[in-house]
Amino acid sequence: MSSKIKQFLSAVRYQQWYRGQIYAVVEEPGREAVYASLEPPLPKPIERYLSAKGIQLYRHQAEVCEKVRQGLNVVLTTPTASGKSLAFSLPVLEALLSDMAATALYLYPLKALAYDQLKTLRALEDGTGIRLHSAVYDGDTPKEERATIRRRSRLILSNPHAFHQYLSWHKLWKQFLRNLRFVIIDEAHWYRGVYGSNVAFFIRRLRRVLDYYGSDPQFILASATMADPLEHARKLVGKDFVLISADGSSRGKKTYVLWDAGAHPSRSEHRQAADLFAFCVSQGFQTLCFTASRKMAELTARWAGAEVEGVAAYRAGYLPEERRRLERDLKQCHLKGIAATNALELGVDIGGLDAVVIAGWPGTVASFRQQSGRAGRSGQESLVVQVFFNSPLDGYLLRNYRYIFDAPSEQAVISLDNEHILKNHLKCAAEELPLTQVDEKWFGPAYASAVKALVGEGELTVVRTGTGSHQKTSNAEIYVRPRGSAAQEVKLSPFEEGEFKVVCDGEILEVIDRRRALLEAHPGAIFLHQAEPYRIKELDLTRGIVLVEPAPGDLYTTTLSETEVVVKEVLGCRHLGRVELAWGKVAVSEKVYAYLVKRFDRVVAKEDVRGIPPIEFETIAVWCRIVVPPSLGGSLAGGLHAAEHALIAVTPLMAMCDRWDVGGYSTAHGPGGKPNIFIYDGFSGGTGIAERLYRCYGELAARALELVSGCNCQDGCPRCIMSPKCGNNNEPLDKKMCLHLLGIVSRDAAGPRES
Predict the structure, then answer these.
(1) How does pLDDT run across 487-502, given as a tens digit for each residue?
(2) Longest dimension (CA), the chain
(3) Using CA atoms, how far apart are residues 430 and 446, in angstroms rounded to an integer?
């Protein structure tokens, strides 16, 4: 451990806000690099460039080159800062050097990543003399440059959101697409849930258009470590892959400080994270503080900024030029610290930070490792402070902290069975090329029924039956899109749908999605932008505008809401003794009815909310009906509510998601007249999480029981059954009844086969 980190550990204990919160200190040793050579070697221009830069190939980089040379699709899963970009770029450059017509497409989940990689690729071009005219092509690309890029560039960087829009204009891209040799998908673990399912169908549409032009490129995926990356790659792309996961890169020493915010209950956990952020900066560590929400990124920057200079907030929603300025200032050390959402979890080049503070468990082991990896990217010894909040999952992981270092990463869930998503992409596909029966090979077994439904809804039209189509099939019905631009209507991310502009004195501060507007932008709410508070004056649902005005003080607001769930269709059922477990389609309604005004964590007022429509959607849920013995005392409603919280709290241990990706609902008199607990996918059509929970519900219940029984509190606390996202203000809750119910479910989990 370096003297600087030792000094930090000593000095932090003398701060006025320290109350013994350091629960454990874990040291991770450094590691020497493992190198490998290629046979035959890379082309001379590339070899000379690497030699001039003093770059030797790590073992995994050489393995990627070898597999790509063999014509295989590759998924590379190594940690942050292990040289994944160079690993996939070298074989691409080699192939494009040998075939002067070949092209490559790089896809990134964030625009900032594409611009980062563009700098690296242009340096490679300059250093090797290979002229690919690499360029970014996305919504920010000036219109006057687009035709030149399409005609001249052999390596184009973009993102799924943008290329999803461009597919219907594929004739403008035919030269590039006809010669496409490689598709690179970086940060592939990012594509999960609804977003991942949408991107999976977008990639199938891309492959369908490429097939039309006679192109079948190799795919190279780069990802953080995750469970079953081969299955994830297959679902995402629809092809078979080989896996390279043995990391050959060097690693600097890392010290993890596990901080128990609950040891100082009189000081807000968020304030403690801000204290640590400011203290790290004051000790000379250039620091990145990860927060769980946009609001907390703003507040953390505001609180820390009152103690030290040179800190700022960074999150999605800022205008592009503002984000890039912050990235540049951080990389050039003009900023000493930045409070961010997970928008900076990915590989944006912001230099070699000295320390990372993670405010609350980030949701998954994979995210913890990604966020921790932002410190020490330049190989220096680094510091990570993981602040565990007063929440059930945080408390569970703190007590079992070896889990976060030793457990494998979670599985990224992608559902290809979401009919809503499939139909959206079939509308897009029909605009790109007429649909025929052979397109089932791209879109799966639900293709025919989805097309039939779209015809019935007037979204597709049968134009003729007989011989001929773009696939040269016979006796096929041809389906086309009769109107509109489907790609403009269909959003890949659920958070893109229904944008609202936040406006103050005629200036657009940022853009938020409809869901966030309905949940947070009610009149009277406090809205934060760049750590400055604004009070919402008006929510205009018709024009998509949120009018705000500057607000004084340290106030912020949280909402109270009520949820209803109605079962529409049962897709599977198992009888497990006193428990009936089922999954299926449900209709969900969430409505905000009030909000709490808070100063720090203290409630200072409660106000009713009127005139805000509910959020309504159909999705997939898993639910259990429990036969409760009459002898059990206590509040059944409180026990069910507490069990619902506990089950949702441990859901991230079963699937790569966080607690915000699922919702819950419990009732003492649900379907069948029995007590019911529902866990539902938080987005229309489902994400695959609820179905996965149905398959492993026994383990889920056992983990929830372990969580609640392992907490020493008497009646329930934020570390076991209270939830920070509860729309009912954590009322009612009954810990003893919760333990009884979870005991019944976990004991009866091994039951008969599915019916």
Answers:
(1) 888 888 765 556 788 9
(2) 82
(3) 16
Inter-CA distances, 412 with 38, 226, 364, 368, Å? 33, 7, 10, 15
- Both tokens of residue 113? 């990543």
Distance CA 199, CA 592 (A): 31
- pTM assigned to the model: 0.77
Q: Both tokens of residue 278? A: 């400011």
C-alpha 668/C-alpha 675 separation (Å) is: 4
In angstroms, rounded to a whole number, what is the distance separating the alpha carbons of residues 428 and 435? Answer: 10
CA-to-CA distance for 581 and 574, rounded, in angstroms? 5
CATH architecture of the domain 419-489 equals Orthogonal Bundle (1.10)
Looking at the predicted structure, is the pLDDT value of residue 466 above 70? no
More confident residue, 604 or 372: 372
Angle between helical axes of 392-399 and 636-650 (0-180°, round to 10)? 60
What is the secondary structure of 243-295 as a DSSP string? EE------B--EEEEEEEGGGSTTS-HHHHHHHHHHHHHHTT--EEEE-SSHH
Q: Which CATH superfamily is domain 3-30+251-406 in?
A: P-loop containing nucleotide triphosphate hydrolases (3.40.50.300)
Per-chain mean pLDDT for the chain: 88
Give every CB contact of residue 593 below 8 A, 6+ residues apart in sequence.
Answer: 560, 561, 562, 608, 609
According to DSSP, the residues that pair with 586 across neighbouring strands are 567, 619
Range with lowest mean pLDDT among 67-71, 94-98, 427-431, 465-469 = 465-469
Rounded Cα distance, 4 and 666, in Å: 50
CATH architecture of the domain formed by 44-244:
3-Layer(aba) Sandwich (3.40)
